[in-house]
């Protein structure tokens, strides 16, 4: 039990966890299945993140990519970006990591229930949205229709390929994918993710739209959505901010008094659209 609040966990103390599976999915993205050594499930909600620490190196926030409906550990997708993520990429099966969290509010599932949903993901934005997508697929009676649009920079960069193929073949969602650049092995759509939006025009009315991707993508997706008069209350965005503590103490993630690590990283566009530097 934590000393300073009623939480079962100490928010400052990493829990020991073990790498159960690892797979390099492309040149830069590593998949990890991690299990807490306590044997307990992480108990997360879609859209939340954990702070992953490597002894002697440091700690960094990583989104949880698996749905809470999946038991037996949780999944992460880690891009090799710097010192901590490079150390994470060197982990082998059986190695130990420290885990704090889950943190953030994640997706407010109650706001999404019974709605038709459109997930627009770009690149690594697939990792947090996959948690929500698989949660919806496992609880279909709680939601309306599901449409997923995915854009990836280039064909070799695509990850979770087998899962994407199942999404494309199944009849429980509409899945459309594109890559920015042509490639000999790719026969699908070519162009940025916004080129997929007109293809699902009829789905946009009365839907909630959830957008997650690199910062540059938001501007263009939000501009494209303006054409369809979707209320800003019905557009959700994931804000990724530099984070340190992950628990509202250090101020690193703050925008206009909003602590993204605590109340985010998912916000309604109506809540943050007017905040300078939010998008
Ligand atoms: C809520 C949240 C969820 C995240 N989820 C994931 C995830 O699922 N998978 C994943 O691979 N990464 C994710 N990230 C980004 C990840 O935390 C950073 O890549 C990581 O902190 C870099 O740490 P490092 O020590 O490896 O790199 P550093 O040595 O600290 O930095 C390497 C480079 O990355 C830049 N950088 C560091 N942190 C960030 C950041 N937050 N945003 C943009 N650029 C940054 C630095 O400026 C530098 O250029 C997430 C970040 C946040 C805030
Ligand atoms: S990361 Fe420390 S306050 Fe949000």
TrEMBL record:
<keyword id="KW-0479">Metal-binding</keyword>
<dbReference type="InterPro" id="IPR008333">
    <property type="entry name" value="Cbr1-like_FAD-bd_dom"/>
</dbReference>
<dbReference type="Pfam" id="PF00970">
    <property type="entry name" value="FAD_binding_6"/>
</dbReference>
<keyword id="KW-0408">Iron</keyword>
<feature type="binding site">
    <location>
        <position position="253"/>
    </location>
    <ligand>
        <name>[2Fe-2S] cluster</name>
    </ligand>
</feature>
<dbReference type="InterPro" id="IPR019480">
    <property type="entry name" value="Dihydroorotate_DH_Fe-S-bd"/>
</dbReference>
<keyword id="KW-0285">Flavoprotein</keyword>
<dbReference type="GO" id="GO:0016491">
    <property type="term" value="F:oxidoreductase activity"/>
</dbReference>
<feature type="binding site">
    <location>
        <position position="261"/>
    </location>
    <ligand>
        <name>[2Fe-2S] cluster</name>
    </ligand>
</feature>
<keyword id="KW-0411">Iron-sulfur</keyword>
<dbReference type="Pfam" id="PF00175">
    <property type="entry name" value="NAD_binding_1"/>
</dbReference>
<protein>
    <submittedName>
        <fullName>Anaerobic sulfite reductase subunit B</fullName>
    </submittedName>
</protein>
<dbReference type="GO" id="GO:0006221">
    <property type="term" value="P:pyrimidine nucleotide biosynthetic process"/>
</dbReference>
<dbReference type="Pfam" id="PF10418">
    <property type="entry name" value="DHODB_Fe-S_bind"/>
</dbReference>
<dbReference type="InterPro" id="IPR017938">
    <property type="entry name" value="Riboflavin_synthase-like_b-brl"/>
</dbReference>
<dbReference type="InterPro" id="IPR001433">
    <property type="entry name" value="OxRdtase_FAD/NAD-bd"/>
</dbReference>
<dbReference type="InterPro" id="IPR039261">
    <property type="entry name" value="FNR_nucleotide-bd"/>
</dbReference>
<dbReference type="InterPro" id="IPR017927">
    <property type="entry name" value="FAD-bd_FR_type"/>
</dbReference>
<feature type="binding site">
    <location>
        <position position="245"/>
    </location>
    <ligand>
        <name>[2Fe-2S] cluster</name>
    </ligand>
</feature>
<feature type="binding site">
    <location>
        <begin position="77"/>
        <end position="79"/>
    </location>
    <ligand>
        <name>FAD</name>
    </ligand>
</feature>
<feature type="domain" description="FAD-binding FR-type">
    <location>
        <begin position="12"/>
        <end position="109"/>
    </location>
</feature>
<dbReference type="GO" id="GO:0051537">
    <property type="term" value="F:2 iron, 2 sulfur cluster binding"/>
</dbReference>
<feature type="binding site">
    <location>
        <position position="250"/>
    </location>
    <ligand>
        <name>[2Fe-2S] cluster</name>
    </ligand>
</feature>
<dbReference type="GO" id="GO:0046872">
    <property type="term" value="F:metal ion binding"/>
</dbReference>
<dbReference type="InterPro" id="IPR012165">
    <property type="entry name" value="Cyt_c3_hydrogenase_gsu"/>
</dbReference>
<dbReference type="GO" id="GO:0050660">
    <property type="term" value="F:flavin adenine dinucleotide binding"/>
</dbReference>
<keyword id="KW-0274">FAD</keyword>
<keyword id="KW-0001">2Fe-2S</keyword>
<dbReference type="InterPro" id="IPR050353">
    <property type="entry name" value="PyrK_electron_transfer"/>
</dbReference>
């Amino acid at each position: 039990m934590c000393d300073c609040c009623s939480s079962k966990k100490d928010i400052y103390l990493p829990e020991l966890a073990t790498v159960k599976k690892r797979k390099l999915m492309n040149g830069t993205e590593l998949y990890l299945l991690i299990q807490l050594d306590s044997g307990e499930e992480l108990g997360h909600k879609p859209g939340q993140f954990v702070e992953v620490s490597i002894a002697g190196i440091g700690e960094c926030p990583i989104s949880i990519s698996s749905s809470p409906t999946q038991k037996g550990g949780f999944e992460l997708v880690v891009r090799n970006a710097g010192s901590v993520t490079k150390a994470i990429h060197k982990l082998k099966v059986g190695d130990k990591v420290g885990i704090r969290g889950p943190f953030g509010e994640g997706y407010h599932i109650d706001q999404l229930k019974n709605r038709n949903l459109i997930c627009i993901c770009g690149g690594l934005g697939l990792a947090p949205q996959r948690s929500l997508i698989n949660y919806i697929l496992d609880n279909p009676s709680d939601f309306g229709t599901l449409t997923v649009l995915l854009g990836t920079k280039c064909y070799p960069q695509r990850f979770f390929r087998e899962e994407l193929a199942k999404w494309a073949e199944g009849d429980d969602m509409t899945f459309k994918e594109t890559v920015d650049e042509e490639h000999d092995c790719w026969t699908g759509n070519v162009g940025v993710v916004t080129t997929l939006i007109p293809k699902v025009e009829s789905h946009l009315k009365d839907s909630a739209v959830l957008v997650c991707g690199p910062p540059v993508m938001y501007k263009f997706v939000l501009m494209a959505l303006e054409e369809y008069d979707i209320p800003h209350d019905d557009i959700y965005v994931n804000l990724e901010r530099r984070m340190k503590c992950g628990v509202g103490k250090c101020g690193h993630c703050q925008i206009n008094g909003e602590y993204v690590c605590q109340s985010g990283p998912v916000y309604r566009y109506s809540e943050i659209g007017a905040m300078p530097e939010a998008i």
